[in-house]
Amino acid sequence: MQVYLPIAEVSVNAFLLLGLGGMVGVLSGMFGVGGGFLMTPLLFFIGIPPAVAVATEANQIVASSFSGVLAHLRRKTVDLRMGVVLLIGGLIGAALGVVIFNYLKSLGQVDLLVRLCYVVFLGVVGGLMFIESVNALRKAKRGAPPQRRKHGLIHKLPFKMRFRTSGLYISVIPPILVGVAVGVLAAIMGVGGGFIMVPAMIYLLGMPTKVVVGTSLFQIIFVTAFTTLLHATTNFTVDVVLAVLLLVGGVIGAQVGTVIGARLKAEQLRILLAGLVLVVCGKLALDLLLQPAELYAIGTGGH
To answer: How many other C-beta atoms lie within 10 A of the C-beta of residue 122?
Structure first.
């Protein structure tokens, strides 16, 4: 069943979009990532222009993340205080990211930037997570006790705050900076930023994995909702038909993913996520290397 997407100006199979939304929703519930780092490239692959994919995907992430957060709130695995601190940074970052996005759009370089950002970030994050997860699994098999992470520098910073749900007493500066970085990425790449937020919360802030997923989703909801609003009012690149189809699939998928995630060990979850990140990164890198979109463009006269 083909549907015409008015803003993207392409026709796509409605069931394909529902399926993609559902699949990304499952990942959202399992890993605490908005799923945008997978969905946005998948939208590129089926012919949606990058500027539309980025703005519309932010919309879908809000729904699947909200669905996932409800499930985590029932389990009491959301650190609301940490979520609010991350959110303050996230909103600042999102506003900054939309300014950069609009500037690059005016230069006509936004599509290339979005794709390059994906290849670089997915490659780095996926590689680091994969190595760490393999090491953690090996230690678990040998029966070695899990090592406490050292936060030398983080513990020396001022403005400390107690985060009871996470069992932490740390400075608010690192969480705010993580939030800003994720906000910028949300605006430029159409992602919730969970694929950077989750590793940062585990490895930089030292939060327990079971609390990380729900807290990450809580922050993602507000940052991506804010990003969507900015894109819709400044760029007019949010395709409502595309958003609704992805949204329906995403909400259903997130509930399923939360159930699956609760049954897997933290190390298994991390290694699965790392593998997925690397696969998508490889596909995007290949597309950039093998298929230059236009070697030259024919433009109308005028300067």
So the answer is: 27
Instruction: Please tell me the predicted confidence (pLDDT) of residue 155.
Output: 62
Query: Which CA distances in Å does 225 have to 11, 28, 157?
Result: 26, 16, 31
State the amino acid at position 225 in one-letter form.
A
Structure tokens at 223: 């940052």
Mean pLDDT along residues 88-96: 88
Categorize the per-residue pLDDT at 297 as very low, low, confident or very high, splitting at 50, 70 and 90: very low
Position 223, amino acid: V
pLDDT at 299: 47
Confidence of residue 146 (pLDDT cuts 50, 70, 90): low
Among 155, 133, 144, 256, residue whose Cα is nearest residue 199: 133
For CA atoms 218, 123, 285, 27, give the dihedral sign.
negative
What is the distance between the alpha carbons of residues 255 and 258, in angstroms, rounded to a whole number?
5
- The pTM assigned to this predicted structure is 0.64
Question: pLDDT tens-digit profile of 17-26?
Answer: 888 888 877 7
Separation CA 17–CA 276 (nearest Å)? 19
CA 42/CA 18 separation, integer angstroms: 13
Phi, psi for 112 (deg, rounded to 5): -65, -40
CB atoms within 10 A of CB 268: 15
